Structure formats: structure tokens, C-alpha cells
Amino acid sequence: MIDVHAHVFPRITREEARILTGAGEPWLRDGMMMSGEDDYRPVTPELWDAGARVAAMDRTGVDVQAVSSTPLLFGYAADPARAAEWCDLVNDRVLAHCAQAPERLLPLCQVPLQDAALAARTVTEAKAAGHRGVHIGNHVGLRNLDDPDIVAFLAHCAEQDMPVLVHPWDMLGADRMRGHMMPWLVGMAAETHLGILSLMLSGAFERLPSSLRLCFCHGGGSFAYLLGRADNAWHQRDIVREHSPRPPSAYTDRFFVDSAVFDPRALRLLVEVMGAERVMLGTDFPFPLGEQDPGAVVRACPELDDEGRAAVLGGNAAAFLRLAG
């Protein structure tokens, strides 16, 4: 099994986090993710300790993880120069974490996405250092993935043959989603759906090279369930299809999604919409909202035969990550 959606928060001190003064200052203290002086979330050693991580993988039968930073670490609110310095620090720590089990843990870099030129340079340098892909948020401030600079960055990733994992963050509607983890339960799905549709309806997928390997977390959010609504709007309203020569359903072969939907019925719809060849195992390890029994939902999905299950559990990710053999 190859898990494409697994997070790390490497050991970063309060002093090191001051690179992002005024922009979140994330650091780790005694099992607590910190944001400046504020407690953000309690976490377990699997998030920062490679030995604990691999032991958990052994217990649950996961062979390989693509390891990406916790989104709190993105640093998109900082000025670009400080953000680039911060990304270098985080990327070095992620490399060191994964180097403790290099056959099991594959590092994904993060980038200062607020500056496309710096982000592209970071990807090039990170690939040379040993990173196997790129992890980005689905927006930077008010700029969605169809922003021309972000599209240019994605094209650079394609040129570098670096796959891109897109994770929702900084969720919309925060003022109305108070309590009960509503930003995670509602906002994340909406953010991911927005990211996918922005690439479709803006015509960005028409401009991006087909070689781009792009994966959206959490099963693509609400995209699969609402694809019929988007297609209907494209056919009925010229303002929807103004920049997109094809309906949204024509672009499902341009990206992947992970399997983190937690219900075999939901995964069945996702496979029907995307095709089994476009879905990869993702668990959101090691957070409590992640899949606690990796692969269980995939194995229980009635839409998948043995070949399809093998593809979702590992074969698709092996191709996505360019793993030998």
C-alpha cells in the first residue's frame, strides 16, 4: 500500500519559527502544534518522529508514504523572501525525517506559492536535493489555482516532472463555521471543489501540459457529488462556459484524487466519476480525522474488482510518484 496523503510537522523551535513573525509562526512544543504563543492542536509522536511513523505503518500494513508538511507550515502570509527562507528550512527537515527510512518515506517539498518565480526555483532546488513531489495549498489569499502566476508554477512542475499534491487550507466562511470542526468538515470540501472547478472553468487545463500530475486531497472534496450540477450549468449558462470549451466532466482525466472519503458508498461514486485509475490511497495520517484502518474503505468498495483495488491501494501511486518497479 502506498499512501499519498500523510503529514509531518518536523521539530521546529520557537526561535526558528520567528522567520514567520507576523505570519503564524508555527512550531512544535511537547506534543502541541503551536501558532506563535497559542496552542493550535495536540499531536502524537507519529507526526514528527520517523521511528514512531514507520512503526505505525508496519502495524497498519502501509508500505510507503508520500510525506508532506502540515498545512499550518505553508507560510503564505509572509513576504516572499521570508517565505522562501522558511520553505528551505521546512524542506530540509522533511528530507531529514524521510532519510531515516528512505525506502518507506518519500519527501514532498513546500514552496513560497505567493511568488511564482520563487516557488519555481524552490521546486527545482528541492528536486535536486531529493524531494519527490510538491505540496501546495489550494489558494493564496484571494488567488485560486487559476491565477496566471499559479498556473505558470504548475506548468513548471510539469516541466520538472514533479507531481503536485493539493491540500485545502485557510478555509472560506470561517466566520460562519464556528465550533464542531466545521471548517474541516464543510470548508475543506468546498475549498477543494473550488480549486478543481477553477482550473476547469477558467480554461487553465487547456493551457496546462497534459503531463502535469496533480492530485487533490480528501477525494476531491464535494466535486464528485456536484459534478452533474457543474455540467448542467456549463450547458445552460454561457457565463459558466465562457472560458471553458468543454464541460467539467471532460477534464476528470487531468487530475487524481485520494481515497479519503471514509465510506465505501462515497468511494463507489468517486470511482464511477473519476475511474479507478485516477484514485489513490490517502489517509491524512496521523490526524484523528484521517483513515484509521488504511485501505479498509478501498477493500469494501463494491465498484472495485481485484485489479481496481490493487491500482487504488498502490499501483496508481507508484506511477504518480515514478517509483521504480
TrEMBL record:
Coiled-coil intervals, chain numbering: none
Keyword Metal-binding among UniProt keywords: yes
Keyword Iron annotated: no
Keyword set, alphabetical order: Decarboxylase, Lyase, Metal-binding, Zinc
Top-level division of the source organism's lineage: Bacteria
InterPro entries: ACMSD, Amidohydro-rel, Metal_Hydrolase
Pathway: Secondary metabolite metabolism; quinolate metabolism
Enzyme Commission number(s) of this protein: 4.1.1.45
Annotated SUPFAM superfamilies: Metallo-dependent hydrolases
Similarity section: Belongs to the metallo-dependent hydrolases superfamily. ACMSD family.
Oligomeric and partner information: Monomer.
Protein name as it appears in the record: 2-amino-3-carboxymuconate-6-semialdehyde decarboxylase
Organism whose genome encodes this protein: Nonomuraea spiralis
